[in-house]
Write a structure and sequence with these properties.
The chain is α+β, with helices and mostly antiparallel strands. It has helices spanning about 25-35, 40-45, 60-75, 80-85, 90-95, 105-115, 115-130, 225-240, 260-265, 285-290, 370-380, 380-395, 405-425; strands spanning about 1-5, 10-15, 145, 150-165, 195-205, 210-220, 250-255, 270-275, 300, 310-315, 330-340, 350-355, 355-365. Helix 3 (about 60-75) crosses helix 13 (about 405-425) and helix 7 (about 115-130) runs parallel beside helix 13 (about 405-425). The longest helix has 18 residues, at about 225-240. The protein starts with a strand and ends with a helix.
Length: about 425
């Protein structure tokens, strides 16, 4: 050991390596204390069960602790997380009253064994926490409509995690090719992400407080119908726990959910909605055509792009499918149009017709509640939701691959959302 002294400074050096405490360890301490005090660790130990072989001396809670730490750490991979954690494994596990850190291969086998009942038990505990904790009363925020009624806005949308796949050798004398991500991924829309297959994660966010209420994932583009209904059930339970009715909610959805068949499934739940329409056959409806021949209700300018659009409030349409009276629903239609750009390839949203670019917006709210310009402005504020997803990816990136099985991957994503919810709770 070498000592370097000065009147006011003393520096000691040593040839032995002394690992520094990870910068995220303080957050783990806070998270462990909160989970212990609120009884979440005991609840997980009692209610999240998994019967499997080769369990050894580890329980479900041991693996939950690792995944919570991984979610908080922000490390890019589980391998990097384990390498950073290893020198502090004993104090890390002791924070959660656990005794020994499972090795990465044991965690991998656990996630591969996670089944649907185990996954749903964890999801139910997470939802119960969201119903009992979080913002209440005026702290929930809200949007005041033209009649001075408060609407609680919820965003339902998702992120996509793409995976790269290298070419495989194929020949008659070789066994059939198998890929490790076949069970968890499928071909689908990848957005701007590089890869050949994708997995979609649908999230539920209370827009005013930015509280996460759920996460649901499936291979490819996902089962967006069932995922939306599951999200609607979580929102209904959230409102009921706070003494509110489904009519006090407004679901803000993108064009993926803008089909009439899907809205037909949503309307019986009593939840309000605002969605970008994707069935452009509505433009041929007699009421829409008649309205487009009249002067527009006004002109709106997009804040970011400065593109001007004419706005038409068509009103409610209830006879969209007269041949199917059992499928009749009433919804309000708004249409925007703008002059088409010189290059048709620049039209990425809407439909190009006769030199105009048309967009559709459908809502359950009447004009007395949400004037036409307010509807469009409220929908455009979905951009803040996209920013929340971006911030989440930078802080935790819950779409990181943890498992090659659907239930194991979603198990880790729920814990990631739970950890973020606890660290940001009021």
């Amino acid at each position: 050991m070498t000592n370097i002294t000065a009147p006011l400074i003393e520096i000691q050096t040593c040839p032995a390596d002394v690992p520094t405490i990870p910068p995220w360890f303080a957050e783990v301490v806070v998270l462990a204390r909160h989970f212990t005090q609120q009884g979440y660790l005991a609840a997980i130990s009692e209610q999240v069960r998994l019967a499997r072989g080769r369990a050894g001396s580890f329980e479900v809670l041991d693996f939950v602790v690792i995944l919570l730490g991984y979610a908080v750490s922000g490390e890019r991979t589980l391998e990097a997380f384990f390498a950073r954690l290893l020198p502090f494994a004993l104090p890390f596990m002791a924070l959660f009253s656990r005794h020994r850190l499972p090795v990465p291969s044991t965690l991998s086998r656990f996630l591969a064994a996670v089944d649907r009942p185990c996954l749903e038990a964890l999801r139910q505990l997470f939802l119960q926490d969201r119903l009992q904790q979080g913002f209440t009363g005026d702290r929930m925020g809200g949007f005041q409509d033209a009649q001075d009624n408060r609407l609680i806005v919820f965003d339902v949308d998702g992120t996509r995690q793409a995976a790269r796949q290298r070419a495989l050798a194929r020949a008659s004398d070789l066994p059939p090719a198998r890929r490790r991500l076949d069970a968890v991924c499928a071909p689908g829309y990848r957005g701007r992400k590089r890869g050949e297959v994708v997995r979609t994660r649908t999230t539920v966010l209370q827009a005013h407080t930015q509280e996460w209420l759920g996460t649901f994932s499936n291979p490819g583009n996902g089962d967006y119908v069932e995922e939306l209904l599951a999200a609607a059930q979580a929102i209904t339970a959230y409102l009921s726990a706070r003494g509110l009715s489904p009519a006090d909610a407004l679901l803000r959805l993108d064009g993926l959910y803008g089909s009439l068949a899907l809205l037909l499934r949503l309307v019986p739940l009593g939840l309000g909605f605002l969605v970008r329409g994707r069935d452009y056959r509505l433009l041929d409806h007699a009421l829409v055509q008649a309205r487009l021949r009249e002067p527009a209700d006004g002109s709106v300018t997009h804040v970011e792009t400065q593109v001007q659009r004419e706005l038409f409030d068509v009103g409610f349409i209830s006879d969209w499918q007269p041949e199917r009276p059992e499928a009749a629903i009433s919804f309000r239609v708004l249409v925007t149009r703008r002059v088409a750009p010189a290059d048709p390839k620049q039209v990425t949203v809407g439909i190009l017709r006769d030199g105009w670019v048309y967009e559709l917006f459908l809502t359950s709210q009447p004009a007395s509640s949400l004037p036409a310009a307010t509807v469009l402005e409220l929908y455009q504020h979905r951009g803040s939701f996209e920013q929340v997803l971006s911030d989440e990816d930078e802080e935790q990136d819950p779409d990181r691959w943890c498992s090659r099985t659907p239930c194991g991957q979603e198990f880790a994503q729920i814990l990631s959302q739970w950890a973020q919810s606890q660290l940001s709770r009021p």
